[in-house]
Design a protein that fits this description.
The chain folds into two domains: 111 residues, Rossmann fold, CATH 3.40.50; 215 residues, Hypothetical protein af1432 (Orthogonal Bundle). Helices cover 50% and strands 13% of the residues. The protein contains 14 helices and eight strands. The longest helix is centred in the last third of the chain and has 21 residues.
């Protein structure tokens, strides 16, 4: 679906278009406010036309505009035809960038399903798909058979929650945070096929499930990209905001509850390090633009150096993900900041 955005200057067009593109939408800015050709907007042949507006007072608050009220009214005159034919008109005076994006995405979804009020695909809808629970549990069984730590419902739900919270706390659109939750919940379903390449296998499996649920293909593409790029750790890179949030949620899940081996004497280094972690928390500071993994480790069970020995590649991946979201990544163990 091609989305075109027109509107007066400072109404939020550029921010909206850039965010929609990051979400996978085919979005364009139409400079109708600067054209005397009334139907210039139609040259783009949009499937969905959005017109944004704001008051002159709001313009002054957002930017030092070099024009007066008269030119703002002239812009509105040039936008009259677009406003008559638009699919969505929004006055953004009392709306933040995230609210504008959410309103547009909701309207686009409604248009894509023929104007009905069918609910948007969210995490609750995904969780109700019977085969998903089977895939998660069976994949966890397969990993248990080859000695891996827990990758079942606990891990899936935790990663979903953390991925959602990362984007929500950093002020990204609610819909983008919801896609992160969906990607987080589904990210390990490929383990039913093989641990090797499970990210790519899981992305393919997610496509089938999400398509059947009626999720728009632009959103499916975002979720698939996130799942497919969370592994392998040595070469994985974030490809979109949802991907970055998923990486942070997945790689920060280290805790003794993940250890399956009941015999501590038989622990390998992965069991020992996970079992030593008594508390873990991913702290997101939106003002300071930092994301910090805080761990409390029982050093009698495992020294701190063991953590770095097996998780260094994870921390590098987390740093890439945090940087993608415009943040610095930090690591604090037993109240001592190490990164």
């Amino acid at each position: 679906m091609k989305i075109c955005v027109a509107g007066v200057c400072t109404a939020g067009k550029t921010t909206l278009v850039n965010t929609l593109r990051k979400l996978g939408y085919q979005a364009y800015h139409v400079a109708q406010e600067h054209s005397y050709v009334a139907r210039m907007w139609a040259l783009r042949r949009p499937d969905f036309l959005v017109v944004l507006d704001c008051s002159y007072e709001t313009s002054l608050k957002r930017r030092a505009v070099p024009w007066g009220v008269a030119y703002m009214e002239e812009q509105r005159r040039r936008l009259e035809d677009a406003r008559v034919h638009c699919d969505l008109y929004l006055n953004t005076d009392d709306m933040g960038p995230g609210e504008v994006v959410d309103a547009v995405v909701a309207a686009v979804h409604k248009a894509q399903i023929g104007g009905s009020m069918m609910p948007i695909v969210n995490l609750d809808v995904v969780k109700k798909v019977p085969e998903i629970e089977i895939y998660i549990n069976k994949g966890n069984d397969h990993l248990g058979a080859i000695g891996y730590t827990e990758h079942g419902p606990r891990h899936a739900n935790l990663v979903a929650n953390i991925a959602h919270n990362v984007l929500a706390r950093l002020g990204f659109p609610q819909r983008e945070a919801e896609l992160a939750a969906i990607a987080g919940y589904l990210h390990d379903i490929g383990n039913i096929i093989s641990r090797v390449g499970h990210g790519q296998a899981g992305a393919t499996m997610a496509f089938t499930v999400l398509r059947e649920l009626g999720m728009p293909h632009d959103e499916i593409a975002v979720v698939m990209g996130a799942i497919g790029s969370h592994d392998p750790e040595e070469s994985g890179h974030p490809v979109n905001n949802v991907s970055a949030a998923l990486i942070l949620g997945d790689k920060s899940d280290v805790h003794r509850t993940r250890v399956r081996n009941p015999d501590q004497a038989a622990f390998d280094i992965h069991d020992r390090v996970n079992y030593a972690v008594e508390h873990s928390f991913l702290r997101v500071d939106d003002r300071g633009k930092t994301i910090t993994l805080e761990l409390k480790i029982d050093t009698k069970i495992s020294p701190v150096m063991d953590y770095f020995e097996i998780f260094l590649t994870r921390m590098v991946m987390c740093r890439r993900a945090a940087s993608f979201l415009g943040c610095d990544f930090g690591l604090a163990i037993n109240d001592v900041r190490l990164l």
